[in-house]
Amino acid sequence: MLDLTYELPKPKVISGAKHDWELVIGMEVHAQVSSNAKLFSGASTQFGAEPNSNVSFVDAAMPGMLPVINEYCVEQAVRTGLGLKADINLWSAFDRKNYFYPDLPQGYQISQLYHPIVGEGEVLVELGDGTARMVRIERIHMEQDAGKSIHDMDPNMSFVDLNRTGVCLMEIVSRPDIRGPEEAAAYIAKLRQIMRYLGTCDGNMQNGNLRADVNVSICLPGAYDKYQETQDFSHLGTRCEIKNMNSMRFIQQAIEVEARRQIAIVEAGGEVEQETRLYDPDKGETRSMRSKEEAHDYRYFPDPDLLPLEIEQEWVDNIKANLPELPDEKKARFIKEFGLTDYDASVLTADVESAAYFDEVAKGRNGKLAANWVINELFGRLKKEDHDITDSPVSPAQLGGIIDLISSDAISGKIAKDLFEIVYTEGGDPAEIVEARGMKQVTDTGAIEAALDEIIAANPAQVEKAKVNPKLAGWFVGQVMKATGGKANPKAVNELVAKKLG
Q1: Sequence-separated (6 or more) residues with CB below 8 Å from residue 102
Q2: CA pair distance 108, 98, nearest whole angstrom
Q3: I need a labelling partner for 136 at 20 to 30 A (CA). Which of 52, 95, 455, 459 fits?
Q4: Is 8 in a helix, a strand, or coil?
Q5: Cβ proximity of 246 and 1 under 8 Å
Q6: Which alpha helices (DSSP H) does 58-201 contain, by range?
Q7: Is the dihedral of CA 204, 143, 70, 74 positive or negative?
Q8: For 151-182, what is each residue's pLDDT tens digit?
């Protein structure tokens, strides 16, 4: 069982001219399903292909072409729901959302409004200050993506690329549980982390594979508590939706800007209108896109070309049984099994590749020592060179070999850093490198004592000073290490210095 004892973060408070105001945020995250084919056709989902090269007759809405559900996309949605501890609906259905889409040829979007594949779930969002908030998931539904309109290739015409048309999206809808810009970014990061562990979405925001619509409203202090008690939205302010955000930094900026806009309107005696807005990062403002539509504005109705989707509990149970270890569980295991701090465990489980790397290095070894080398030495070096763990020139076996040499006292910590540099730049087996280059630590106390005796004999004045002030004994330790080329066992040196100087 996970220890879910945590302290709630304080809500973001913005001071207006008349009152202090709190933020209330809900999010609709659109995550592109990791799948080789689209939701209703066999066309490729490859990113970066030539415009309009990944388009089937179904995607192009040719007459008589009928959609056929992609079972793997359904499986990925179920897997995501299970990863978010959500209810899986064995019966769901697709609806048509009618709207003018210039880059969706059929003129409507196939979505799931009334009967989504996934019901209520939850996500634990941890902040860097030790606080955390449980954000409730209202539902996850599948829908097809639209294409892309391109307006900057010709001054008089717009171009349309239909490659994304029909790609499967999971829309993850949260309750209005998020209370500030930093929490919103942390929520997106946690969702992305979980989906990457599950393999259901790569979370690449730059390619548009993860986008968010952010609903922002304001309320006076105390009003949100009344909403939580009653679930009555009348206690909250009118929300506005900021559309298609694909940057953590811009999400935080947009929330702050939109909240201040709403505060200015309300404090001037006006009313916030529910609408969809766009964020302009260059001007640092949100601007109106269109009035916020309700379900009836889209004229939703059941899609006549698709039967209701029925799945079996046994199939869901099989998917659940094969889920990987998820971030929260892995973090808890690292803390318990290896004695790591909460911070170190969080760093190591931030992405699935880093966690797997550490798991292999730490197996059968001192977990704290392994974590120190992975985080400080390896991650530090990779970050300096703008690489990630998948680009590491040092394999888990090689780093584990260095740790084994330290643990067996074959090399000192200083020599280990020199060895790491050699392995990082040249490769090779650490044990063989140490043997071939004479890097083994000197543990022979006779040899260490002989070097120390020479230094003591040559520095009688320094000896007298050290006897008066024991802190100066460190000078002798340094001289012995220098005389032995850094190979002397530091513990043995310290013991001999203390013994010789009384």
Answers
A1: 149, 158, 160
A2: 4
A3: 95
A4: coil
A5: no
A6: 71-83, 181-198
A7: positive
A8: 888 999 999 999 999 999 999 999 999 999 99
